[in-house]
Amino acid sequence: MPYKNQIKRLAEGACYHAYNRGHNRQQIFLDEHDYRTFLYILKKYLDPDFREIKYLPNGESVLVAINKPMYNKVELHAYCLMPNHFHLLVKQISRDGMSRLLNVVSSQYSAYFNNKYEREGTIWQGTYKAAFVKTEEQYLHLSRYIHLNPSLFMQIEQYPYSSYSVFIGKKKQPNWLRVEDISCHFASLQKNSEESYRRFVEGYNKLDEDRCTKETELIRPLMLDEEKEI
To answer: Whole-model pTM above 0.85?
Structure first.
């Protein structure tokens, strides 16, 4: 039986919830350096200003751009890395943008992980999965779902491996993360977008049961299989 969301509807200008977890639900991030390495790979391909150190035969070091950047093919709108899985909210600029990004990130991180921990074989539960975001309402609620992932064990604004702290103004926005498409929905004359978005995300647990159920059902087709999630 195929995994949910394994078949992907690829389209230019479309948004997706892309995710994967460790093989047999194993952890894929074991320490801080693992998380930072995954984020570094995202930055490497999505930051238009990224430069990599290369050494010339004479020992001199120079900064050069990578050969195949992805910033003109796909945008990252939100993310959260958890111990045994990751969530990315992406928008395709070109039809193959998401696939190219996820393939290179998954393969490079897997190589790093296997080398560091002296192991072999895949670290992933198959290829990445992707759920097509059909509506603007789904898009906004999906960003909240992604950012609420760490809420079971800590305050989400303090979680270092999520884009939430950027959305609420606690961290500077990096060049490889685009927050404007979400934040623009929460700007008003009374409140700035950071405060409004915080209320939207953190207010979810204060909703009455009927509304909470309704909003969860809205994005259920986009979610990880809940019974397999930590």
So the answer is: yes
